[in-house]
Amino acid sequence: MAGFAGAYDSICGRAVNAAIIRIFGGGFQVTLAPDLLDKLSRIVGANKLLMDAEAHVQYGRDWTRVETPSPAAVALPGSIEQVQALVQLANAEGLAIVPSGGRTGLSGGAVAARGELVVALDNLNQIGAFNSIDRSVVCGAGVITEQLQQFAEDQGLHYPVDFASSGSSQIGGNVATNAGGIKVIRYGMTRDWVVGLKVVTGTGELLELNAGLIKNNAGYDLRHLMIGSEGTLGIIVEVTIRLCRAPTDLAVMVLGVPDMPSIMSTLAEFRQQMELTAFEFFSEPALQKVVAHQDLQRPFDEPCAYYALLEFEQTSGSEMDQAMALFEHCLEQGWVLDGVVSQSVAQARNLWRLREDISETIARWAPYKNDLSVVVSKVPEFLTAVEALVNAAYPDFEIIWYGHIGDGNVHLNILKPESLSIADFAEQCGEVSKGVFEIVREHRGSVSAEHGVGVLKKPYLPYSRSPLEIELMRAIKRSFDPNGVLNPGKIFDL
Ligand code: 2HG
Ligand code: ZN
């Protein structure tokens, strides 16, 4: 047992109501005072205030698994009013809150490792009013992405933001992180589909933003400030989403290419003539690992340095011929070495899995993840520079490249050699990251294209944002959350 050591020193500048910190296994646990627990359970109901260790581990971490989860309590509010009451209590008691969705994040944005109160939006999971004229639907923050996609399909429409974690990620979390995914080249990010938001601010007030409007230039658009703010400005409680026409008869092509410049030429050629719904890439080592560990086959025998995955709609019936003609042209130019195209929905799904299953497959090597972006045309030189740097500094590290090359977003995963401990590996990767982010800065790119900053990328924010930008972000944070109760320690320190 150790005495109270100020888990919330940054919150309201004072200690939380009679918390005790117990050190265990390198982490610590905060026990809230009985009267505070009582107040919390009066807000959400005793059975919606989870105090068991299992729930604390489950709700205290995201997919990063880097920090030891250690929330003080987990609350599952059942209404917007309850969320407001929790935030008001947090202000009064100096309690830190971590808003929590599906916790599929990869930057530690939803991690509660310092005795915070986790406010999990799971129970705000109703799909509400649908309007077929506006093509909009109201969703509670806890609606699962796949549930919304299914709802849209049932209406003969489509929700196009898609990624591998759509079966467990929640809409509120998607909005809080401005989730991207595999169709950004055609449909944009989550931001592009949010037409209305309800958000509880850091003082517990309810902001209703944009009311479903398409056009609204009446002053600053606070909705867009909330989108991507990673729970630091407000808790997203309700989202009005725009839907679109469902795509017709999607076909998938996987092409083998000899090098990155050839991928760019292929992308330019296809985009010149066709509207693509996706243009993704992965490297040969990524393909080898997916094929070895999933029930999948190589698209063709010839190993190529990289693979491009293209997807296109077949609305007029001529698209397949057009795509085949483009394929032939790319072959003649030497940009493409081989390729396959799907002839059925099942084949398309399997080709997609070659790309979508990479992240899950390589998780067993405890990869050090980077989610970088540069303008699309600079991707080849950027990749070459990063690879040269990592290879020179750590020749034993295996690098796996994949990502959304059509929008300039590449995922650099460095696999942990078996001989290294997790801690030593993280330290060495931290060192190499400085060099990688220096290259990002030189290319005026981003240290986090779609995963957010959370805690993992916080030290590197200055590589992508100027001191003035970061100071303005801090000022915005103080406007919405003057006592710093919402997700403290994420994105930047106050
Ligand atoms: C993807 O594109 C995800 O598959 C995960 O954004 C990226 O695992 C990663 O690094
Ligand atoms: Zn991605």
From TrEMBL:
Pfam families according to UniProt: FAD-oxidase_C, FAD_binding_4
Signal peptide feature range: none
FAD-binding PCMH-type domain segment(s): 67-246
Cofactor annotation: FAD
PROSITE patterns for this protein: FAD_PCMH
Keywords: FAD, Flavoprotein, Oxidoreductase
Family: Belongs to the FAD-binding oxidoreductase/transferase type 4 family.
Protein name: FAD-binding oxidoreductase
Species of provenance: Candidatus Litorirhabdus singularis
Lineage, top ranks: Bacteria, Pseudomonadati, Pseudomonadota, Gammaproteobacteria, Cellvibrionales
